Each structure stands twice: as C-alpha cells, then as structure tokens.
Amino acid sequence: MSVSSTASASGRIDRRFAALKAEGRAGLVTFVMAGDPDHDTALAILKGLPAAGADLIELGMPFTDPMADGPAIQAAGLRALGQGAGMVSTLDLVRGFRRGDAETPMVLMGYYNPIYSYGVDRFLADARAAGVDGLIIVDLPPEEDAELCLPALAAGVNFVRLTTPTTDDARLPAVLTNTSGFVYYVSITGITGAASASAATIQAAVDRLRRHTSLPVAVGFGINTPEQAASVARIGDAAVVGSAIVRQIERNLDADGRPGPGLVDAVLGFVRSLAAGVRNARK
User: Fold this and answer.
1) Cα dist from 23 to 158, 236, 240, whole Å
2) pLDDT tens digits, one per residue of 36-77
3) Averaged pLDDT of the chain
4) Catalytic residues, which ones?
5) What pLDDT band is residue 1 in, cutting at 50, 70 and 90?
6) Which secondary structure element, helix H or strand E, spans residue 33, and what is its range?
7) List of domains in the chain
8) Coil, helix or strand at residue 268
9) 118-156: b or e for each residue (b if 16 or more CB lie within 10 Å)?
10) Which of 19, 66, 232, 269 is the most buried (most CB within 10 A)?
C-alpha cells in the first residue's frame, strides 16, 4: 500500500468536514444496515443517499448479537442476515457504491466479532481496497487499541470513537487518544432509537468535548425528525440519523418482508427532509 493511496482514502472524512465548515453548516450522517432488506435494494439506497443530502454514510455490519442497538436496527440486522449478508457482501456493497461515488465518506459501524472472524489484517486490506474510510466499533474500548484501532490507523483507515454522557473528564483523554476522523457523541444513555436529549444538554456536552479535541463532533442517537436534526445541526458538526431511516425501510416492506415498489424512494425522500432540516438549521 503506497503512502499516497493511504492519504487519499483517510482524507475523505477530513475533506468533507472542511467543506462543511467552509459552507458554514453541519453535515448529515446517515446510517443504513448492509444488506437490508436485501443486497440490491441496500445498494440502490446507498447510491441514492448522497444526492438526497447525506454528507457521510455509516454502513452497519450485520451481527447476531448487537447489544447496543435498539429494536429497529436489531431487526434490520436480522433481515440482512436472513438474506445471507456478511462481511464479504458488506464490502461488496462498498465497492458497488464506490463505482459511482469517489468522494462521500463511508464508515463501517458495528461490532468486533465479525471483523475478528474475518481476520483483522485481511479485513483492513479488503476494506481499504473497497473504499472504506473509517470504523466505528462499539465494543472495543481504548484499552484494546492494539486489537484493531492501531492496525486500522496504520492502514489508513480512520478509527472513530464513541463518547457518551457518562464519559467524564478523567476518561475522555483515553477515549480520544488514537481517535481520528471525527468524534461520535452518543447524546443519550441506552440503546439506539431511544428518546432525545435536550438541546441544552447536547450543547453542554459538545462544548466540553471541544475543550478536549479539535476533531469534528457528530451527535447521534434519538434524532428522528428533520426538526430534531436541525436542532442538533445548530450545535454539533454533524447530526447522525440511523433508527429513523431504518424504520422507513421496515414500513415499506410487504407482508412477506420483501421491499415494496416505493421503498427506495420513501427512504431517500425521508433523507431529503432530514437534509433540508440540517442545511437550513443555521440560516
């Protein structure tokens, strides 16, 4: 792997946040599960996300025991697994997306077990070649950086860390060490898709994070409407929406769990409404 190619991939996230700063607005980060509700539909959604207003994309890696996820994302993972999704098909989705989009940052999000099973070195090589820019691995604390974080950084793949309302000032330096790309602030305690935090609470948390890091701060969990996305976009550098998008997929399945004819348009239409909220938030 050449130094120049490594810099090119790892730079997508930096370039995107720099462009957002120049525009004077926050970004919209969208989460979808790889292979949900099937491979072809998932690829169609992925390909449509940037034009619908997604500035960065998180792609979930299906896993059988997603302990931090709420019912919507758990169900999405089960639908994907039921269609045979796995690491090979997840990386194939990234390759398919990259054939038409060389600039939108793509971050894989999930748990360490599927990566460990695939093989860390093999995974990083294949992810890097496919066009993955970063990883969010929710069950690897800083004490385990040698497992994946440090090898990922060496391979030119950003390692994005989660911080939460319970991450105090004593813990933050450890959490932020080796973090790159951006910091993901989980605005509530508990699972994905739960209730929202107040703007004042988020503001205080983001202010505290910014005293510890110069990295962009993306805020997620509990953002379900364009109005909530706009509220977060006035505070953070990006608003992250996952469960609400995944629920749009679920609502457009037929009785047998197959995608209805309007599913992709419904999902992308919802993303456009979120993007409008985010883009108009500071005007």
Assistant:
1) 23, 14, 18
2) 999 999 999 999 999 999 999 999 999 999 888 889 999 999
3) 93
4) 58, 69
5) very low
6) strand 27-33
7) 3-279 (3.20.20.70)
8) helix
9) beeeebbebbbebbbbbbbbbebeeeebebbbebbbebb
10) 232
